[in-house]
Design goal:
Layout: E1 7-15, E2 18-27, H1 30-35, E3 46-49, E4 64-69, E5 75-81, E6 95-100, H2 103-107, E7 114-119
Parallel strand pairs: 2-3
Antiparallel strand pairs: 1-2, 1-7, 3-6, 4-5, 4-6
Length: 134
């Protein structure tokens, strides 16, 4: 399984529209995953929750797109969820991507789309190597 740290990076989507890169927030700690998008009115790009196989939108202010990823970073399913809902866990899901509602359709994300995650430099000058799955 990929080993990321809380921080920022870039999500590269390899789909029908070619490679598309979007800004990414990475949430791997319990605290960061629990906070997620709570209290936000918008998001530039996407947020990756890892590990995760299900989400909820209780106390969220906006509808979101949710993409469930397997251990190879392939999209299993994409759903749009309004605030106040509980998403059922996906059996093969290891990671979850969240974005503003409608964003993933614009990026061409659907079941079968492969993604890669590129982390940016961490404080102190260390650069994490790009993670791409197992």
């Amino acid at each position: 399984m990929a080993r990321w740290r809380d921080g920022r990076g870039r999500l590269v989507l390899h789909g029908d529209k070619g490679a598309t890169a979007v800004p990414l927030e990475i949430a791997t700690s319990y605290r960061a995953r629990t906070k997620g998008l709570l209290g936000r009115d918008s998001l530039d790009g996407a947020i990756l929750l890892s590990p995760a196989n299900g989400i909820h939108t209780f106390r969220m202010r906006m509808a979101i797109d949710v993409a469930y990823l397997d251990r190879h970073l392939t999209v299993i399913a994409v759903r749009t969820m309004p605030p106040g809902r509980l998403g059922l866990p996906r059996l093969r899901s290891r990671h979850v991507l969240e974005a503003e509602a409608g964003a993933m359709a614009g990026w061409g994300v659907r079941a079968g789309t492969r993604v890669t995650v590129e982390e940016t430099a961490q404080p102190g000058g260390a650069l994490s190597s790009p993670s791409g799955g197992t």
